Amino acid sequence: MELRFLRRRIGVLLFISGIAILVATIGLQLLEPSAETLEPISSSYCMVIDPGHGGEDGGAVAADGTLEADVNLQIALRLRSLAALCGVPVATTRDTVSIDYPIDAETLAARKAADQKQRAAFINSIQNAVLISIHQNFYPAPGPHGAEALYANTEHSEAFGKLLHEVLKKTLDPENRRVAAPISDEIYLMRNVNCPAVLVECGFLSNPEELEKLKSDSYDQKLALVMLSAYLQYFQTGWNL
Length: 241
Known about the structure:
This protein is of the alpha/beta class. The protein has 7 helices and 6 strands; from the N terminus they run αβαβαββαβαβαα.
């Protein structure tokens, strides 16, 4: 039994070392938990990535016409690729620009409602799902900036959301004054899933400088890696944070 535990412990260390090497290649600095808190890696969790909006719902629109839905999908696909590379079970609520709507959904509002119901049902059908819903923020004035994690009212959501927010802040924007917060009950998807769930506002499409970063491959890759790193720290190693 002790030998088996030791092998698993070594496996955890090797796994995290691989992530550390990947992190170093793009110049990020992540939180450093104590090795004494390590527990065997669990593959029972499935990361479910939800690229917000899509189809006929483009979400927020930047001044240059960039659609939130497209930025969300780009980041989500990068996160899925990184998760798969690390052997993390992963699923997505959509992986294309288009969405198949029910035939009887005849208005945009009906299609959006049907899409959200389909996503919630899909997520709830996955055993031990952990939801990361990817979105972009928007404000009438160009000043506001910075990423923010919003968490659902389900077990583990608050702790995971706060950890994810801190990693985002520390690695990508130390001057970010935003804080992790509970998500509004008006958000259908986050209200109707029964798993740990976090919605990440990756940045403001209304801020010209942040918009350019969000449109860049390198920054989207960093965002994806930060999300994966926070997920691994909380769910895959079972640390009590």
